[in-house]
């Protein structure tokens, strides 16, 4: 049966041709449209395959860092500090353990009744494994952990590597306050963060406030921690404001802010036995 064609004034109606044209146009243009759409959403990847940790971390050292957060029962904070100051320096000073206590603090502003400890393991994961194994045989440390557990509400830790463009944290005299600025980055943006901060760090060196910069490997991932030292809160304010008067700082801030999902600042006071005072 012949197909019926609507005629207007003796001519075939354009409407009668639309279904066929739509089918032809759709089938012929779809690959091109799909390709165009994919080009919008698919990011080109550098053919070189390497973990961001290998690209961003220091090559001359194989140090691994552990950052510990202990939320202490408010009534136990003084006793907690006392036993930490008795036991932790012994591990730090004992050459039997390939680790160093970089710093130990109580938060002053930020999350309250919190202790923060930063350890360095010279030799990476094998050193960490060695220390943990030896501490299980250390009766004093076993008793310390048992007593400490009764004083805590919660605890967490992260294993970190050090950014290659930051100075390694070394002991310093005080008195100082310390700021730990923690950034939760959007997944996949660590390389971009490192590229921007490799330039940004030069704006924050004049007053020797930069202590260390780290990124997480185990624990909460895509976390960055910047550790700063200041004489007091007013000095912190003055130094941070001065950075905005340096050409290029505002541009780097503009490009790094979109990489951040969440950020937190802790102002911390070092314990008397902390190498960072």
Structure explained in plain terms:
With 277 residues, this protein is of the alpha+beta class. The chain has helices at residues 14-41, 52-56, 77-93, 125-135, 139-149, 190-200, 233-243, 249-256, and strands spanning 7-8, 11-12, 64-72, 99-109, 114-121, 152-162, 177-185, 210-218, 223-230, 260-270. The strands form 2 sheets. An 8-stranded antiparallel β-barrel has the order 3-5-4-10-7-9-8-6. Helix 6 (190-200) packs antiparallel against helix 8. The model is unreliable at 1-28 and 35-48 (pLDDT under 50).
Topology:
Layout: E1 7-8, E2 11-12, H1 14-41, H2 52-56, E3 64-72, H3 77-93, E4 99-109, E5 114-121, H4 125-135, H5 139-149, E6 152-162, E7 177-185, H6 190-200, E8 210-218, E9 223-230, H7 233-243, H8 249-256, E10 260-270
Antiparallel strand pairs: 1-2, 3-5, 3-6, 4-5, 4-10, 6-8, 7-9, 7-10, 8-9
Question: Any key phrases for this structure?
Answer:
eight-stranded antiparallel β-barrel, disordered N terminus, 29% strand, 10 strands, 37% helix, 277 residues, alpha+beta
Estimated helix fraction: 25-40%
Number of helices: 8
Which descriptor suits the 3D outline? globular
Strand content: 25-35%
H and E string: EEHHEHEEHHEEHEEHHE
The overall average pLDDT, rounded, is: 85
Strand segment tally: 10
Q: Any idea what the radius of gyration is?
A: 29 Å
Q: Profile the largest sheet.
A: 8 strands, antiparallel, barrel
Spatial sequence of strands, sheet with the most strands: 3-5-4-10-7-9-8-6
Judged by helices, strands and strand pairing, the structural class is: alpha+beta
Flag low-confidence runs.
1-28, 35-48
Termini separation comes to: 96 Å
InterPro entries: Dimeric_a/b-barrel, NIPSNAP, NipSnap_domain
Protein name: Protein NipSnap homolog 2 isoform X1
Main location: mitochondrion
Subcellular location: Mitochondrion matrix
């Amino acid at each position: 049966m012949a197909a019926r064609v609507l005629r207007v004034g003796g001519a075939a109606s354009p409407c009668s041709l639309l279904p066929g044209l739509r089918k032809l146009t759709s089938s012929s243009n779809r690959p091109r449209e799909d390709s165009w759409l994919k080009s919008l959403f698919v990011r080109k990847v550098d053919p070189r395959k390497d973990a961001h940790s290998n690209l961003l971390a220091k090559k001359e050292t194989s140090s691994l860092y552990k950052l510990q957060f202990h939320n202490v029962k408010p009534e136990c904070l003084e006793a907690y500090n006392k036993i930490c100051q008795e036991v932790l320096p012994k591990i730090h000073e004992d050459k039997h353990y390939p680790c160093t206590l970089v710093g130990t603090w109580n938060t002053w502003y930020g999350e309250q009744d919190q202790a923060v400890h930063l350890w360095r393991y010279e030799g990476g994961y094998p050193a960490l494994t060695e220390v943990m194994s030896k501490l299980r045989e250390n009766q004093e440390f076993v008793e310390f952990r048992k007593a400490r557990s009764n004083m805590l509400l919660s605890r967490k830790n992260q294993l970190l590597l050090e950014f290659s463009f930051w100075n390694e944290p070394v002991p310093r005299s005080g008195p100082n306050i310390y700021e730990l600025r923690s950034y939760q980055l959007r997944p996949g943006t660590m390389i971009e963060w490192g590229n921007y901060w490799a330039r940004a760090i030069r704006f924050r060196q004049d007053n020797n406030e930069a202590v260390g910069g780290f990124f997480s490997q185990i624990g909460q991932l895509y976390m960055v921690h910047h550790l700063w030292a200041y004489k007091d809160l007013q000095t912190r304010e003055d130094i941070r404001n001065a950075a905005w008067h340096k050409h290029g700082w505002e541009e780097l801030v503009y490009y790094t802010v979109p990489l951040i999902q969440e950020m937190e600042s802790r102002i911390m006071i070092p314990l008397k036995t902390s190498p960072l005072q």
